[in-house]
Design a protein that fits this description.
mainly alpha, 8 helices, about 0% strand, binds zinc ion
Length: about 270
């Protein structure tokens, strides 16, 4: 088959990497606009310090930042390393999904979901908020995937949809109850509403069995991230931790579940 050609495979991998870099830049901008109350789709990209509109030369992922030595070309203001880092991360995430799922409809679905996860991680890091728009987008991508699966006949869409719903509900109920109990015990907000909604979405994508693994990983990552990045030690940026755990689940969720079910003899 032509798709088995190593050259075509390398070419596609390079394309996915470039797409990841460009989308990383776009998603960065989207997250910034969401947290600053600007329209997400309208208006040109501009320097966040001087407001100067950015031209094509300023918008090349990673390279623009590197060649301008991390400064705005117009006002000289420092531009955070987070921008090129996010672009690189987005490329790595896209390529990793492509390498695992190849030419499948799942690749498109999971790249879409990963993009949403990237945006909500950035907004959660900056403002401790996971915008509802990101949750809705993630659910819409899952729904579109299920419809496409049914139309193309690549899987049993009804069974997938039923398992999805069961996954979401089975995960969200104990997590929601736990968050209420923890709020009472700690006397303050523990798990944010956005975190609970995001775990519901994770249940939709991965089903409840993989979500058990996902929640454990997210808790460990949340504590680590909290120690590294949280400005206010009381709060843990759980959104990025859940997002990272989702990424891990996309790549090795199935194997991890078989492994730990094997450990307990199931
Ligand atoms: Zn500037």
């Amino acid at each position: 088959m032509i798709l088995d050609s190593p050259y075509l495979f390398a070419y596609c991998t390079a394309l996915v990497a470039v797409l990841g870099l460009c989308m990383g830049s776009f998603l960065n901008c989207m997250a910034w606009r969401m947290t600053h109350g600007e329209s997400v789709l309208r208006g040109r990209s501009h320097c966040t310090s001087c407001g100067h509109a950015l031209g094509p030369l300023d918008l090349v992922p990673v390279l623009s930042w590197a060649f301008s030595r991390g400064k705005c070309r117009y006002c000289g203001e420092h531009v955070s390393w987070r921008y090129p880092a996010t672009e690189l991360l987005c490329a790595i995430v896209y390529v990793s999904i492509w390498l695992v799922y190849g030419f499948t409809i799942e690749t498109i679905e999971l790249i879409g979901f990963a993009s949403v996860l990237l945006v909500l991680s950035l907004t959660d890091l900056d403002t401790y908020i996971i915008p509802n728009a990101t949750i809705i987008a993630a659910i819409a991508i899952r729904a579109l995937y299920l419809v496409a699966t049914g139309l193309l006949g690549t899987g049993d869409a009804l069974t997938l949809a039923r398992d999805s719903l069961i996954g979401g509900v089975v995960i969200v109920i104990p997590v929601y109850v736990l968050s209420i109990v923890m709020d009472r015990v700690l006397g303050r907000n523990s798990l944010g509403g956005g975190d609970v909604k995001l775990l519901f979405v994770a249940g939709l994508y991965f089903g409840w069995v993989q979500c058990m693994f996902l929640i454990i990983v997210a808790c460990i990552l949340g504590l680590l991230l909290g120690a590294i990045v949280s400005r206010d030690s009381k709060y843990i940026p759980f959104g990025p931790a859940i997002a990272l755990a989702c990424w891990l689940c996309m790549l090795v969720g199935g194997q991890a579940v078989s492994w730990y079910l094997g450990l307990v003899g199931l």
